[in-house]
Amino acid sequence: MKVKYVAEPFRIKMVEPIKMLTREEREARIAEAKYNPFNLRAEDVYIDLLTDSGTNAMSEDQWAGVIKGDEAYAGGKSYYKLLDAVKDIFGYKYAQPVHQGRAAEKVLFQLLLGEGKYSISNMHFDTTRAHVELSGARAIDCVVPEAADPSLRVPFKGNMDTERLQKLIEKYGADKIGVVVMTITNNSAGGQPVSIANMKETSEICKKHNIKLCIDAARFAENAYFIKRREPGYENKSVKEIIKEIFSYADMFTMSAKKDAIVNMGGLIGIKEDENLFSLCKGRTISFEGFITYGGLSGRDLESLAIGLYEGIDEDYLKYRAGQMEYLAARLDEAGVAYQAPVGGHGVFVDAKSMLPHIPYYEFPGHALAIELYKEAGIRTCDIGSFMLGNDPDTGKQLEANFEFTRLAIARRVYTQAHIDIMADALISIKEKADTVKGYKITWEPPILRHFQASLEPIK
Ligand code: F0G
Predict the structure, then answer these.
(1) Given CA atoms 166, 168, 171, 174 in this order, what sign does their dihedral have?
(2) Percent over 90 (pLDDT), the chain
(3) Of 85, 130, 189, 218, which is the active-site residue?
(4) I need a surface site. Which of 64, 250, 337, 339 has the fewest CB within 10 A?
(5) In a domain, 13, yes or no
(6) Atom nearest to 187 CA in ligand 1
């Protein structure tokens, strides 16, 4: 099937030069970086797909907002503008800005969790899991089994396995489940969406057992757009209406605004109506982040975030955004490169297990493909697999992830069709010599979130 590239609903007013090193230079740089792409200097990267987080291009309105940002310590105009946007879009009574998503997790999760408790999620993102574990609790992923088969094309592979959720609640006892977290889109499963039906069913289960439901809302707009495109009955609803409905089923949200709110820094906590919980959050924000009305951000960040929340839900923009992923995915389909299909909202998650079947999970196929992409075309990506998952916190043993993905996360409004073609060409060229690619071993690792810092070397 020929997929036409959806042309950009914007034009370019400012450019950022990038340079391409030679293959020899790239091989030297990645060795110096101890074979960890997080250790590379960004200027040595040609196309940076490490993350779609905070790497987005702001609009002229957002940059104008930077100038208008109110830098008052307390009660600034930009803070109130942000509160109005949050109320308008999500319909929640209370909002607290923080400096990014993990700060929201740090402020909120210790209030819900602790020793002996559990957090159950369709899938915890790595920092979310870390904050659950830092509170002394344990994180359980409960995604639908369809997510584990990258070749299976079903519309809502990010969903919660609600049958298993019920069973887990019965097994551990509702009083031990501090929170249920619905991550939209489900990043770790490949940016896969969650349906409204699943959101509603999960909400009903939580209500029945008196368990709080929290949305991890990093990619809420992309999720809503998938619902509009795929869920019967929603095709004529606006993305904004769909967002209201999604959030009506939860009690609170944490949000990394560095994704769908199209800013370089920012985060939010939203609380539907629990005034007491909000008050506790405010207290913790003051000690960890800064005063309530700036939450670790500058006034200019609050201002551009308030504007970005609306730009991120614009349907012409979302059509272009989804179109970029679909274009790349179609090129990979043509060449037989497997990925988590159908393609997700913020990137292509290449199935490294399928491309590199000779590399076992403990030699990190997703990571091996990431290193190859850098050597091949100066493309920086990362592993979303066993290397990222790390060791069992109780036994210290390497865990085996459900997937071994190499994630090509695409920043918003940054790369062009020609860049996307380079991504596809590089993957196709690596596929042709896949049997020569080697696995990796870790030579040093820190105890938590190791993939950001670990040193590795190729296995001879
Ligand atoms: N939740 C999800 C679903 C995320 O994807 C992220 C970040 C966070 C929470 C934490 O937010 O970075 O603002 O502190 N994801 C980035 C990524 C880092 O590359 O996927 P943060």
Answers:
(1) negative
(2) 96
(3) 218
(4) 64
(5) no
(6) 3
**pLDDT tens across 213-241, in order?**
999 999 999 999 999 999 999 999 999 99
Judge whether residue 449 has pLDDT over 90.
no
Pairing of strands 405-409, 440-444: unpaired
- For residue 60, pLDDT over 70 is answered with yes
How many angstroms does the Cα of residue 422 sit away from the middle of ligand 1?
26
Cβ atoms 82, 304 nearer than 8 A: no
128 lines ligand 1 (CB under 6 A): yes
Q: Cα 406 vs. chain centroid, distance in angstroms?
A: 14
Which one is catalytic: 90, 125, 249, 327? Answer: 125
* Cis upstream peptide for 185 (omega within 30°): yes
pLDDT at 269 > cutoff 90: yes
Residue 85 CA to residue 63 CA, distance in Å, equals 18
Cα separation of 411 and 55, whole Å? 6
- Span 357-395, pLDDT tens digits: 999 999 999 999 999 999 999 999 999 999 998 998 889
- Do 290 and 384 lie in one domain? The reply is no
Ligand 1 center to 260 CA (angstroms): 11
Are residues 132 and 95 in contact, defined by beta-carbon separation less than 8 angstroms?
A: no
- The residue-averaged pLDDT of 76-82 equals 98
Asked if 72 and 163 sit in the same domain, the reply is yes
Q: What pLDDT does 1 receive?
A: 61
* Any ligand 1 atom below 6 A from CB of 203: no
- 3-class DSSP assignment, residue 126: helix
| Catalytic residue check, 109 | no
> CB of 183 closer than 6 A to ligand 1?
yes
Boundary residue ending a domain (278, 311, 344)? 311
Q: Which amino acid would we find at residue 37?
A: P
**What would the pLDDT profile of 326-337 be if each residue is shown by its tens digit?**
999 999 999 999
Segment 173-190 mean pLDDT: 97
Total domain count, the chain: 2
Structure tokens at 78: 């930009």
Indicate if 333 and 292 belong to the same structural domain.
Answer: no
Rounded Cα distance between 49 and 142, Å, is 27
- Does residue 55 carry a pLDDT above 70? yes
Give the structural domain span for 39.
Answer: 23-52+314-458
- Is 175 tagged catalytic? no
Burial status of residue 122 (CB atoms within 10 A of its CB: 0-12, 13-18, 19 or more): buried
Please state the rounded mean pLDDT for residues 187-195.
Answer: 96
**The whole model's pTM is what?**
0.96
